[in-house]
Each structure stands twice: as structure tokens, then as C-alpha cells.
């Protein structure tokens, strides 16, 4: 197991369309282990494979709070098959350190995917889990949270990110 480094905007690999996974091979299982470790270390609520430079349709999510038992979910080749309602959620993204902004999302989603053993499942989600599923699913299509902001908010968010990146380059 290893912690992988997380790509930051504007890395071009965050813009690629990820490819479906044919078979859950031992290599994919090892990749999933690295993604869990990387997500917990960050720490983050979710992590999509493209964020560590792997263009495959795979993400992991754990929405449990600090004092709750972990609730890890693995989604392989996910498809959001239903969306319902609307919610504004204050989101962050590990590929945009320091940026937090309210994003318009569906309030509830139904997602179909394969789990880490290659078994199909369907899940209905609301709250943070529904928002995280939409956020991670966007990563698989090269869509980032700034793409879902107004022009003004995007400009402010990217300026804030640039400032942070300049600071950490000088540190
Ligand atoms: O850690 C994360 N927190 C978060 C908060 C609200 C909505 C979405 C997220 S996902 C994010 C981790 C990340 O960047 N996943 O791609
Ligand atoms: Ni993200």
C-alpha cells in the first residue's frame, strides 16, 4: 500500500475522460487500496482515480465523521441513473487546496456501479454522500468544481488557488 500524490489544478490529467474498467484484477485491487490510503491521509471525503493520474472510472468515498466508524464505498464504472431535487452544498476538492464554494447539485441520486469484488450494486443517496457521488463522478469526465461555478466565483476561486500555490512554492 502506498499514499499517492494528488494532482492539483491545472494539471491536464484532471481533464481527461477516464476509461471503464474491464475486470477487477489484482492490480485494480491494489490501486483501490492506495486510493483509500491516499484519501484517508489527505484527509478527504472522496477520491477519484484521475486525481492520482490514473484515467480509470473508479472512485472511493467515506462520508463518516471523525468519531464515527468508517463507511468506505468503492464505485467502479459508476452511472448516475436518477437525480432528484436541488441543493447548494459548500464543496472542497483535494485538487483545489484552500478553495471552498457552494455548488448546485441534485439533492438525491441513484447510482449503479461495481464494488471492489466486481459485483453490481445500486445505491440511493442523499446529503453529503449524494453530493460526493456527483463530485467524484464529474472527475471521471474531466469536470471540475470550478466548471460548475459562475464566472465571478470561478475567477475568485482560481485567484485564491494561485495565491496559495505561490505561497507554498515560496515556503
Ligand atoms: O474532501 C472532499 N470534500 C468534499 C466536500 C464536499 C463535497 C465534495 C467533497 S469531495 C472532496 C475530496 C475530493 O476532491 N474528491 O474528488
Ligand atoms: Ni475533487
Account of the protein in words:
By secondary structure, the chain is of the alpha+beta class. The chain has one domain: Alpha-Beta Complex (Peptide Deformylase). It contains 3 helices and 7 strands; from the N terminus they run αβββββββαα. It has helices at residues 26-41, 127-140, 151-170; strands spanning 46-48, 58-62, 72-84, 87-92, 100-105, 108-114, 120-126. The strands form 2 sheets. A 5-stranded antiparallel beta sheet has the order 1-2-3-6-7, with helices on both faces. A hairpin with a 5-residue loop joins β6 and β7 (120-126). The longest helix is centred in the C-terminal third of the chain and has 20 residues, at 151-170. Nickel (II) ion (NI) binds at residues 93-95, 135, 139.
Keywords:
single chain; 171 residues; alpha+beta; Peptide Deformylase; five-stranded antiparallel β-sheet; two-stranded antiparallel sheet; 3 helices; binds ligand GNR; binds nickel (II) ion
CATH architecture: Alpha-Beta Complex
Q: Strand order, biggest sheet?
A: 1-2-3-6-7
Radius of gyration: 16 Å
Number of helices: 3
Q: CATH homologous superfamily, by name?
A: Peptide deformylase
How far apart are the first and last residues' alpha carbons, in Å?
29 Å
Mean pLDDT: 97
Ligands and ions found: ligand GNR, nickel (II) ion
Give the beta-strand count.
7
CATH class: Alpha Beta
What percentage of the residues does DSSP assign to strands (E)? 25-35%
Q: Rough shape?
A: globular
Number of domains: 1
Order of helices and strands: HEEEEEEEHH
| Major sheet description | 5 strands, antiparallel
